[in-house]
Design goal:
Number of helices: 32
Number of domains: 4
CATH architecture of the largest domain: 3-Layer(aba) Sandwich
Strand content: 15-25%
Organism: Limihaloglobus sulfuriphilus
Domain Helicase/UvrB N-terminal: 133-349
Number of strands: 31
GO molecular function: ATP binding; DNA binding; hydrolase activity
Protein name: Type III restriction enzyme, res subunit
Largest sheet: 7 strands, parallel
Distance between the termini: 44 Å
Shape: globular
Radius of gyration: 35 Å
Oligomer: single chain
CATH topology of the largest domain: Rossmann fold
Helix content: 25-40%
Pfam family, one: ResIII
Structural class: alpha/beta
């Protein structure tokens, strides 16, 4: 299925790959530091890559605008859908065409095909993507993936880029982090861990230290704003906000519950009275409302704000008043238009939502503005424990006893960090816990763990009059909050109405639901609590004990919320397909790797005054000469003829060039070696003469297209610098590889990324077919028949495809190979794609001063123009390197590598040729065919 997050992930992977090839890239440096720090999990790193793509490539735009502008468009994917040519060129209808087909909305798709120019499709796109007034991005990561620290990553990265690009609205200066509601007792405390995050995990120490000094993180967890405390009726949360706002407007982070912002007097009616631009504006009423809602007003005035929503799935759908409190709170904060963007995090993105199309409600099983999705089952064995889910259909007392026996028999573990494994029993009520379940647990302990009854722990809150006798000691809250500490002796945790969302107890190793049947969401939330990794999830297991009813409930909820079944909750690899090696040994390729070293052989200090006296502007004019004449010509039979000079270009006014300015700029160009005072004391007369000579030539300098005053200053400053003489040494390293030979026995290629997106494959495997019509993952030999048969041969001349399928990075690469294979000019040559993931395939590469360069394609000419034959060794005589590059990525970093290949590598490897084809944005290689054919002719 084609989704927003699969489109974004595909774009992100290509973008990140190209950024990583650029040593000067800010993105490359950031991601490299994150990788070297090694503190983040794969889903956190991938989510950050997506975040960076959204900010830098997507420009923080609304998702619907990204669709409209074609930022998310993928032509290869679009061609796999019916009616592609009906909508070619219209990004909105192409997207809707794919969406309707994926979701089997046949009537809507038919209407779209019949009326592609309809004015309502644009509005439908907005409704489909939830139509918020701000950029809204949902990151879906399963429990245990580290969502709270990911929030901290987003905060610090935004502040870092905001400090570099101070006026750039893409990056926030301040933040509000919302937990969904106060009743979720574990969520707000878990958000406090944002304070504990070390920004050195994502930024160099120097930059991290700067941000630590400016960031202020404040928890707004005092009494509700609707109540008055004892300090003169003031709101303590409001006092915190106002105190911080008075002293700073950058780097503030407020963490709170939505209820503390959404107050009793906020609705649409209020807006008409409080907005001065509205005709119904009432100053007196606006003042009253402002006093009533001071906290929300104070937060809404915080400038350049990003709002982060934890457990954001709570904000979708509707409540009695038509809107969820989390989303209503965002509207409150955005009443003055200060919200930069909203970032939501959730582990359950498959919430049913409804959109209205032509008066009919259509129910969707998934939130549509997900920008990153990491499925729960992919995390099993990586950062989540491997669960053993047991269904037991026995009476409650035996069920509980068996759960205890199995837990202590198979899951009694002391982890490397000193914590001991624990089992949580989720009980239906306080009375049931104390009167039925606790006695069973205590009796089991008397038989099997006598003398260790202090391992049993109860925790719940909100004891009413009926259960007053079961009131817990006050210290139980502190014990509950410290269960995951090595000194905690508690092993069996009996809970009521707590410990679902947000409870972070990594040493929790087992979950037991004693009651026979409970609510759907409760089963899903509680059973996953015990999956959090302690130290190494690949060696950690968890036990989930369920009745048959709850087992069936869990299965249904996994399908509905994660699109998984219980059988999916086992350690799984990414979907992959065995590669079919068609030409395993293409022959040996010999070439020389070239390294240039420079060695200083002499260093000398200049005779400064002598060089300054010798300065002549005439020499500069000769070196940087240009013609300021205006020429006139006429069109003749052989082009422009009869050119004559009719005038000279003149500067309208000569710029002021004071001696003080000259001295100041000259001092800067010496990089601190000489101050203005030093220059004046030792060289004033000589420099004044130079200034006068320059001043006389200011018009020439103003008009010169090749030189300006800063260049003149650098030339003069060079008179003050030490001189060095050096020798250049070229080191030739003879290299010989068995071209494209497989390394290792595991020959497989990832077919589907963790978020479900089918990679670009050549031969192209349609996304809708997933594993192919004939199941290539199960029987890869079918690839040979389907793509290389007599009727459907991707390589009719048998000159390519040493292995299939190829996973490629861009459409331009795919189209280039497809067009190459059609050419008769290649009949005596061979063309091969040069690359494979994880370097398990020995590829051809060139070492350059700017890093390793691996070209896209190699075209080979063998001895006597013979071609590859299995079992025969036919020497390779010549190789043509072909590169394909999108114009945005044909940048200075790549050009530097290309320059080395052309000027150095080819000089010492005469049997190689090189050419780069630059795409102008259409992914169309046919426009380059004439050039390519000429290359083959000369080759």
């Amino acid at each position: 299925m084609n989704t927003i997050y699969s489109l974004i992930r595909s774009k992100t992977e290509t973008w990140v790959k190209l950024e990583k090839e650029n040593n000067q890239s800010l993105i490359n440096n950031t991601l490299r530091h994150i990788g070297e720090a090694g503190r983040l999990r794969p889903p956190q790193r991938e989510a950050i890559e997506t975040y960076l793509w959204i900010k830098f490539a997507g420009n923080n735009k609304r998702l619907s605008d990204m669709v409209r502008e074609g930022i998310l468009y993928d032509d290869v994917t679009a061609q796999e859908y019916d009616y592609y040519y009906t909508f070619k060129g219209n990004y909105v209808t192409q997207f809707l065409n794919q969406f309707f087909q994926d979701n089997k909305l046949k009537a809507l798709n038919k209407k779209l095909v019949n009326d592609p120019e309809g004015i309502y499709w644009d509005n439908l796109l907005d409704e489909l993507l939830h139509n918020f007034d701000y950029s809204n991005y949902l990151f879906s990561l399963p429990m245990g993936a580290g969502k709270t620290y990911l929030m901290a990553c987003f905060i610090y990265l935004d502040l870092y880029f905001a400090s570099l690009f101070k006026n750039d609205r893409r990056f926030a200066h301040n933040f509000v982090v919302f937990a969904p509601q106060a009743s979720k007792t574990a969520i707000l405390p878990s958000l406090r861990t944002i304070k504990e995050f070390n920004p050195e995990w994502i930024l160099p120490k120097e930059e991290a230290d700067k941000l630590k000094q400016v960031i202020t993180i404040e928890i707004l967890d005092s009494l509700s704003s609707k109540r008055k405390d004892k300090l003169h009726g003031n709101n303590p949360n409001l006092e915190k906000v106002n105190r911080i706002k008075q002293s700073k407007d950058f780097g503030t982070v407020f963490i709170t519950n939505a209820e503390k912002v959404v107050l009793e007097r906020y609705d649409e009616e209020d807006q008409i009275y409080v907005d001065p631009k509205n005709m119904y504006y009432d100053e007196k009423k606006a003042s009253e409302l402002k006093k009533t809602n001071e906290l929300r007003e104070a937060l809404s005035q915080v400038p350049n704000l990003t709002v982060i929503l934890d457990e954001v799935h709570h904000s979708y759908g509707s409540t009695g008043n038509g809107e969820k409190k989390l989303r209503q709170a965002v509207g409150v904060l955005n009443q003055h238009g200060n919200v930069n963007s909203v970032i939501g995090l959730s582990g359950t993105p498959y919430v049913k939502t409804k959109i209205e199309i032509e008066g009919k409600n259509i129910t969707l099983n998934q939130i549509q503005d997900i920008v990153y999705n990491y499925p729960l089952n992919i995390g099993i064995g990586k950062f989540l424990k491997k669960p053993d889910i047991r269904k037991v259909s026995v009476k409650e007392s035996r069920f509980i006893e068996q759960a205890l026996t199995d837990f202590f028999s198979d899951y009694d573990v002391e982890y490397e960090n000193g914590t001991k494994s624990k089992a949580a029993f989720y009980c239906p009520s306080i009375k049931k816990l104390n009167e039925d379940i606790l006695p069973i647990v205590q009796n089991w302990y008397q038989k099997h763990r006598k003398g260790r009854e202090d391992e049993i722990f109860r925790y719940y809150s909100g004891v009413d009059k009926k259960n007053k006798q079961y009131q817990l000691p006050k210290e139980n809250l502190a014990i509950f909050n410290n269960l995951d500490k090595p000194y905690s002796k508690k092993r069996i945790i009996l809970l009521v109405a707590v410990g679902t969302e947000g409870w972070d107890c990594r040493s929790l190793t087992s979950v037991v639901l004693p009651r026979q049947k409970t609510t759907k969401n409760f089963v899903l939330q509680t059973t996953c609590r015990c999956l959090r990794e302690v130290t190494d999830a690949s060696n950690e297991n968890a036990l989930i004990y369920l009745s048959s009813d709850n087992y069936e409930t869990l299965d249904k909820e996994l399908r509905a919320n994660y699109q998984l079944s219980i059988t999916d909750l086992s350690e799984k690899k990414e979907q992959s397909i065995d590669v079919q090696v068609r030409k395993p040994k293409l022959g040996r390729l010999k070439y020389k790797q070239i390294e240039t070293k420079y060695r200083i052989v002499k260093k000398s200090s200049p005779e400064i005054k002598k060089e300054l006296v010798a300065f002549r502007f005439a020499g500069i004019k000769k070196s940087f000469d240009y013609d300021k004449s205006i020429l006139s010509g006429r069109i003749g039979t052989s082009g422009l003829t009869g050119e004559v000079a009719v005038a000279d270009v003149r500067a309208e006014a000569t710029a002021l060039f004071s001696f003080d300015d000259f001295m100041y700029n000259l001092s800067l160009c010496t990089y601190g070696l000489f101050s203005q005072k030093d220059l004046l004391e030792d060289y004033a007369d000589t420099l004044r003469a130079i200034h006068d000579s320059i001043e006389k030539e200011m018009e020439w300098l103003i008009l010169n297209p090749n030189l300006d005053i800063s260049g003149i200053n650098r030339m003069i400053a060079s008179s003050f610098m030490d001189r060095v003489e050096y020798t250049k040494e070229v080191i030739e390293q003879e290299t010989e590889i068995e071209l494209l030979e497989w390394q290792g026995s595991n020959k497989e290629i990832s077919l589907v990324s963790p978020d479900g997106k089918v990679y670009k494959i050549m031969p192209r495997i349609p996304e809708r077919d997933l594993l192919g019509k004939r199941g290539y993952a199960n029987d890869p030999k079918n690839i040979e028949e389907d793509f290389f048969g007599d009727e459907n041969n991707c390589d009719p001349q048998d000159i390519s495809y040493n292995y299939v399928p190829y996973k490629m990075d861009s459409e331009f690469e795919q189209n280039a190979l497809a067009e190459m294979l059609k050419l008769s000019e290649l009949k005596d040559l061979e063309v091969y794609f040069n690359g494979y993931k994880d370097e398990r395939l020995q590829s051809f590469w060139i070492q350059t001063p700017r890093g390793r360069y691996t070209p896209d394609f190699l075209i080979l000419r063998r001895k006597e123009n013979r071609k590859y034959k299995k079992g025969q060794t036919i020497p390779i005589e010549k190789a043509l390197i072909i590169e394909t590059k999108g114009e945005p990525y044909y940048n200075d970093e790549f050009k530097a590598k290309e320059k080395f290949v052309e000027q150095e590598f080819l000089k010492y490897n005469k049997h190689f040729k090189y050419h780069c084809f630059v795409d102008k944005g259409k992914n169309d290689f046919t426009r380059h065919l004439d050039t390519f054919k000429k290359l083959l002719e000369d080759f």
